[in-house]
Amino acid sequence: xxxxxxxxxxxxxxxxVAIGLTAGLCFLSFGxxxxxxxxxxxxxxxxxxxxxxxxxxxxxDHRIGVLDGSTIASWNLGCLAGAVFTIFLGDRLxxxxxxxxxxxxxxxxKLIQGTTFSLGQYIxxxxxxxVGNGFLASTIPAWQAECLKTHRRGTLLLVSFGSxxxxxxxxxxxVVYAFAFTQPSSxxxxxxxxxxxxxxxxxxxxxxxxxxxxxxxxxxxxxKEAIRVLSALNELPEDHEDIRREILQIKYAVKHMAxxxxxxxxxxGEYRYLHRVLLxxxxxxxxxxxxxxxxxxxxxxxxxxxxxxxxxxxxxxAGACSTVFFIASLLxxxxxxxxxxRRTLTIFGASGMLGCMIIxxxxxxxxxxxxxxxxxxxxxxxxxxxxxxxxxxxxMSWMWSVELIPLSIRGxxxxxxxxxxxLANFVxxxxxxxxxxxxxWRTYIMYAVFNAAIIPTIYFFYPETGGRSLEEVDLVFKQAxxxxxxxxxxxxxxxxxxxxxxRNGDPTDSFGGSSEKGxxxxxxxxxxxxxxxxxxxxxxxxxSTSREARDVDGEHSAPAPSVxxxxxSERSARSRSRG
Length: 579
Description:
One of its GO terms (molecular function) is carbohydrate:proton symporter activity. By secondary structure, the chain is mainly alpha-helical.
């Protein structure tokens, strides 16, 4: 019996926690990079040195708005560039290699920013750090999703993409606020910039010892390494039946989908490649067009310039608002796999943001007429808005887009959807000061319309992927393709197709068999295809192809579905006896 490998002496749940910790540190840095500039731009010493306006009583004009927008958006532009680089380099470097590359680049960018003496150097550092973050944001969702178990994937991914990003934003605003009291010393802004190294340096040290994605390894025909990684992740011997079964599932996806040509990978076949890529891209664009980064990256400026609070009070309110932002994200972690799922949470979040935008329009108009009560009401609904976004959308677009994209193109396609997110992010951020300066309350009408459009888009076009393996999602889209009009039938296909795994991650009666017939005998499939549903034909083909792949390799075939469930039942019984 071959015992499982260890990484840093870890295996099983402990190893998955270490992977989650690495992802969490990277996304803490992500959130920190979004939040620090929102506080720094309110500091008198920072404004005087780099932006040329240090008077607390000054009112923003067109020149200041363009300068602020360009400075803040430079990071987003770098993130866009990093995501584009990942499209072409990601599969060559691998998931882990891309993460290491991104962390090194981000460290260089942060050091340039923290040691700057000019606006040009500061912006260059922001762009470089953004490139590194673009690599990370494009790669970590796929890496972590491909290393997690199906029944816990949503919860654990939302901790990284949701709670860690929002916690990073909150930490950034409070660190800037704390060091604001050291003005006029340059430490007031240098230390907050360099503080994010406390996240990226440990992440770099840990990820070097972490495993590569087993799915990426199989894409590279490195099966022995993939088996070793799956053995460690599941804390089972390499020759264990469960490891062989999971390898079979992934090998089938690789064998079947890797035959797709470079151009065919983004065209619609029976597995709806282009359809799925477009859903992922649109999802990331919709996340930004909720208007979130109009608020998150301009919180300090909004409280100061639009709502007329003094600078120090504005920074404190920004810190409080970002803290609420983080706390609300924890609610999504609780709800995602236990109760609501992807579709319900995103529709709930968009509906809440729509209501907030409508009220913000009214209160902003009242405030502009000289009634300060309008600004007080705006403050309350800004807090409420970030709650709805955090619950419904903060981590959802990153997680859901990975789940929608098929394995063979997951690297470049996820980078493409991430690039779409950063492009939309850049548009929102660069236009933010001008919109707030000239459109004022009308700005909120525009984002109210965007949120209203999101609700039916999610309802009619996005299938629920919660509780399904990444390979199982392929079947859902194939079912929709077989039914005709897949753009409109994929939601129904996802609703009706039985799940392969239960809430505990154990195989169900539908695993490996027909959703209509139960267990599927391999010999019967070969001799009597007329009695099997289209769904069964697909699964029979999957099972047959997987067996052939193993026979060619000189290995044993997978056990029958009934045997697989016996192993599952034995594990459950052992678990109950231990309890």
